[in-house]
Amino acid sequence: MTPIAWLIIAAVVLPLAYFTWVLVTLDRRGALAVQTNLGQGFTQSGNVAVQRAPMLLGISKRLTPGSYEAKLDRWLALAGRPESMPLEKLIIAKPVLALVGAVLGILMFRNSPSLQNVGIGIFITVLAYFVPDLLVYNKGIKRQEAIMLELPNTLDQMLISVEAGLGFEAAMGRAAEYGDGPLAQELMRTLQDMQVGRPRQEAYQAMADRSSVSDLRSFVRAVVQADKYGIGLAKVLRTQAKQARVKRRQRAEEKAMKLPVKVLFPLLVFIFPVLFIVLLGPAAINIMETLG
Predict the structure, then answer these.
(1) Stated pTM of the model
(2) Kind plus residue range of the DSSP H or E element containing 232
């Protein structure tokens, strides 16, 4: 047999052997206890769904390293933990998508055996495995950018409310009530944490940990220090709002200065050649006809 055939056999047999080993070594007694507890009070169809989900979740957790699972949880926190993509669903979807990609790769190789199809099959499998990660990471980046853009206006609104006589938490509640972006959601969640009994400083620090925006982290540190040492929050809000506006203007100026450099590559690759063809093309044709 050729090395390519042995490679295909190994690519099929080894994942199946590992999947079988994980299935055999799974703690069935613990899974059965969990299924029994979760299945109380549900109908028969609900029991079937509950019995299948923990089994598949346990297998997927065994296939996913702990550090990688923690990284996924961090990305979900930055993305706002969307209801359509919980951590358990993400962990289950990754190996399932990879298995689907592997099956497609095997079908492609079966129809046309070649080394190129082997590479395409491996690429499809790896891409299918990391597609949920890309979706969550992209959503987290967009959400953090939205928080960065909303922060100066939100701080100005809270400053106006505090100077009008409202308390800091009441100003946060008003900003969260009239806002419709991810920053308003974070403020509302922080207020809910304090309402259920979480210490104020821990709630503020949790809001900073759920974000990667440096301006928001700086704001949280200033508020925690002001609350600890009894400094007036109106002065802190005024300083933080001014700094946020200055940084937003600086980021806009930085993007404007980077724009000519970013435009240079498509200008040289796509626009200049077309202009040269349009301007020099007729002259080149005339020269060729004259010399010919």
Answers:
(1) 0.69
(2) none
